[in-house]
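Ops channel
N.P.: pipeline sanity check, posting one input/output pair.
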């Protein structure tokens, strides 16, 4: 696996950012009406996916990154559940649901692959490395 120098290079983070942007667009357009609880939850879980990838990466250790990737994966599941609530309340169409659900599923697959790699890697992370080794994910 190629080394990531910054979390913005992680494709799962990029896709989670796009997912967050898409759901934010629906919210900002007023389609969620004044259901502030759902707005806070769906926006919070979408943001949590990308935020936890970033935070885990910045901890500079594979154990910490793994912990935060699992949290991001859980947030992705929470987001998918909230999509059903948005669909059932007709805040989003079936096509919009399908698009967002598929994006979330892709993020989960990417996260699981990264988790699998890190769980078998002998590399422990840059905060545990010798000075002449590479960065966090090599």
């Amino acid at each position: 696996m190629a080394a990531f120098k910054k979390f913005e290079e992680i494709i799962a983070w990029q896709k989670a950012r796009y997912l967050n942007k898409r759901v934010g667009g629906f919210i900002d357009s007023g389609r969620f009406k004044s259901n502030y609880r759902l707005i806070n939850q769906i926006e919070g879980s979408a943001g949590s996916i990308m935020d936890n990838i970033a935070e885990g990466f910045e901890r500079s250790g594979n154990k910490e990154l793994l912990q935060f990737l699992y949290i991001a994966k859980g947030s992705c599941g929470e987001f998918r559940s909230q999509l059903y609530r948005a669909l059932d309340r007709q805040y989003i169409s079936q096509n919009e649901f399908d698009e967002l659900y598929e994006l979330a599923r892709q993020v989960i697959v990417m996260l699981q692959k990264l988790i699998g790699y890190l769980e078998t890697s002998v590399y422990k992370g840059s905060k545990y490395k010798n000075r002449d080794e590479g960065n966090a994910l090599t």
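N.P.: looks fine end to end. The first helix runs from residue 11 to 28.
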